[in-house]
UniProtKB/TrEMBL annotation:
This is Uncharacterized protein. The lineage of its organism: Bacteria, Pseudomonadati, Bacteroidota, Bacteroidia, Marinilabiliales. It comes from the Bacteria.
Length: 122
């Protein structure tokens, strides 16, 4: 399932939250609705607008770069942790899982085994 679908179904109704996502989460109309209805916000890197005049691009480039760096700085440790989990657990290989309960057992079993191994064998 695509990340944006999970966000829309499970996370977007949480109140008073700030989320940090990649460019897939840029859905201005939906994000404005979440902001007004739940006081929650999705911060994503700024995507270049096609056809924008060069002079305007040059004027806003520094601000956009600074903002994108700030969002990336927050997202980077999270991405690194997920990368570590995928590398250590092979958690994404769940082809024989056929139910939600089975997926939960698979995911939490892999996570538990990995963290126990990490704690017991530093």
């Amino acid at each position: 399932m695509n990340d944006i679908v999970v966000y829309k179904e499970r996370w977007s109704e949480m109140r008073n939250r700030t989320f940090f996502g990649d460019k897939i989460y840029i859905h201005n109309e939906f994000n404005q609705q979440v902001k007004s209805q739940y006081n929650s916000e999705m911060l994503t890197p700024i995507k270049a607008i096609k056809g924008m005049p060069l002079i305007i691009k040059q004027r806003i480039k520094a601000a956009d770069d600074l903002y994108n760096r700030a969002v990336s700085k927050i997202r980077q440790p999270i991405e690194a942790m997920f990368s570590w989990l995928i590398e250590k657990t092979d958690i994404q290989r769940a082809s024989k899982v056929s139910s939600t309960k089975g997926l939960m057992v698979h995911a939490f079993g892999k996570l538990t085994a990995t963290f126990l191994n990490y704690v017991l064998n530093p």
